[in-house]
Amino acid sequence: MPTTLTSPETGDRAPASAPARPPRAPAATWVIPLILGAVTVFGLWWIDVRPAAIAAGFEDITRLLARMFPATTGPAPELAALVLETLQIAVAGTGLAALVSIPLAAGAANTFTGPRWIQWLCRTLIVVSRAVPSLIFAIIFVRIFGLGPAAGALAIAFHSVGMIGKMMTDVFEEISATPREAVNATGANRLQVFMSTTFTQALPQMTSFVLYRLDINIRASSVLGLVGAGGIGVALQRSIGSLDYPRAAGIIGVIIVLLLVLELISNLVQRAVSEHAGDTERSMAFPPGKELSTPGWDAPRVGRSAGLLAGVVLFILSLSALSISPDRLARGWDNAVAMLTGFVPPVFTAEIALGLFESLVMAFTATTFGVLIGLVIAVFSTDHLVKVPVLGWALRGIIVVIRGVPDIVYAIVFVAALGLGPFAGFLALAISCTALASKFFTDALQNIDPAPIRALEAVGAGRLQAFVAGAWPQFVPSFIGNSLFTADLALRESAVLGIVGAGGIGFLLHESVTSIDYQSTAGILLGLIVVVVAVEQMARWARRKVI
Predict the structure, then answer these.
(1) Among 110-114, 335-339, 392-396, which range has the highest average pLDDT?
(2) Residue 26 has what DSSP assignment?
(3) Who has greater pLDDT, 523 or 48?
(4) Count of CB atoms within 10 A of residue 530's CB?
(5) pLDDT tens across 460-478, in order?
(6) For residues 210 and 94, is the Cβ–Cβ distance under 8 A?
(7) What is the DSSP string of 146-176?
(8) Are the beta carbons of 3 and 15 closer than 8 angstroms?
(9) From the DSSP assignment, how many helices (H) and strands (E) are in the chain?
């Protein structure tokens, strides 16, 4: 019999409302982990990951590491020149990508009012360049322009166009339309409207994106020398090829230190660029001058202007150091035409399909291990979950060091110790995914509302109970979203590990380019683009269902 309530004003009796049911979690919150679990079980069987093999592998790795010490770096002037070349590749490639990304992003955004075919072309270029890893671009440009830093800078530029262009497109679409409509009403043309409204409003975020991409590109450029595209990776390739493991260890150490120092500098620069006001100040692009119509100059504006000028000078110097002469461009154009005409018709064989499938299996299996281990590290690194500050700082420091080593360097070590095959690639990706996932999860757990956790602790709940009931419900969307993003990045990286013999499609791609089998190269690139874009779309769908 339903419960009734009497109104104190009218005396009418009305049925009481049923108690509200808690919202049901989307089905994707358990379907996605179930699918990843099934793929992982299959991947462990496919890669032949066994506890005995892992134990034996660690013994081999221990012996290899023992052969690497004491580490040496070789002649200091030669190493310094290669480090400088690495920085020049990253700066030149990032600068070129930033210049190209602005018109591409403007054409790809929903706010573009020009012909639809231009918008479609811009979006296609952004997607294709984002789907192909920079190391694969390096293989292609080495074939076109020959060995050296020019190929490396162009590889960095082509891949970064997709990444920077995608982020800029999102920013352009999110900007308020009011200023644009006001300027458009005055009769200004498209370029004038874009430069006076959209571009100026998006400039701070664009600067932050370019600096963030520069940090990533420095990591990428440090290993492009493995395929002959210049930089410190050239010395690493020579050391490993000559079995000079002590020097290889020294060069890897130099790469780690270089990346950690540059990451610190990049974070400081990004903070200076993105934060223009303190707690008691008003954020202004230009401070007031003596006259209302003229902006003034203060210390932050002088610093930003000097930084911009220094960046432009550094970009020009880096570009000039690539030794791109008109004759080399002409030869490169002829090689590029020969390669592109050789792409038709693309050839897609069962061997290529197997290589792509192996890359997928490696990526998703490594992602599962990385996500699970990264979650444990993140829980112990979060202040309001495990209250041991020393442990948290130690774990974060270890993760920073692990993230400082490029994936392919891990793959080189595992291949040298364990031999060729996907097992070495799986271990390299698992370490990389663990570092990446723990970084994402730590940031997400640090930002959850601690009030439910404290309330549960106040009534006597243990730490595990407080985490499951108070933290986990808030964390699930971030957990699934970041796990999918980690899988997306792992797939891109797994496509290049085969270059050093660690399984996947990379080996076939490298062989097809070096043997001038361009039809197979085209088939591999098309297959890789389709797979990466499909996984990216599935990840986007899953995020919409969960977050």
Answers:
(1) 335-339
(2) P
(3) 523
(4) 12
(5) 777 777 777 777 777 777 7
(6) yes
(7) -SSHHHHHHHHHHHHHHHHHHHHHHHHHHS-
(8) yes
(9) 22, 2
For residues 288 and 265, is the Cβ–Cβ distance under 8 A?
no
- Quick check: 442 pLDDT over 70? yes
What does the buried/exposed string (b/e) look like for 17-35 if buried means 16 or more CB atoms within 10 Å of the residue's CB? eeeeeeeeebebbeebbee
3-state secondary structure 323-382: CCCHHHHHHHHHHHHHHHHHCCCCCCCHHHHHHHHHHHHHHHHHHHHHHHHHHHHHHHHC
3-state SS class at 483: helix
The predicted pLDDT at position 283 comes to 40
Q: How far apart are CA 106 and CA 109, in angstroms?
A: 6
Find the helix or strand (DSSP H, E) in which 14 lies: strand 13-15
Find out whether 250 and 74 touch, Cβ atoms under 8 Å.
yes
Gap between the Cα atoms of 326 and 341, Å rounded: 23
Q: List the structure tokens of 88.
A: 């020049």
Closest to 168 in 3D by CA, of 133, 115, 204, 197? 204
Pairwise CA distance, residues 485 & 432, whole Å: 13
Please tell me the predicted confidence (pLDDT) of residue 266.
Answer: 64
- 16: tokens are 């009481």
Quote the pLDDT of residue 279.
39
* Whole-angstrom distance, CA of residue 371 vs CA of residue 376: 9
pLDDT band, residue 254 (cuts 50/70/90) = confident
CA 119-533-164 angle, to 5 degrees, is 55
H/E element, 501: none
For 234-245, b/e burial (b = at least 16 CB within 10 A) is bbbbebbeeebb
Q: End-to-end alpha-carbon separation of the chain, Å?
A: 40
SS3 15: strand
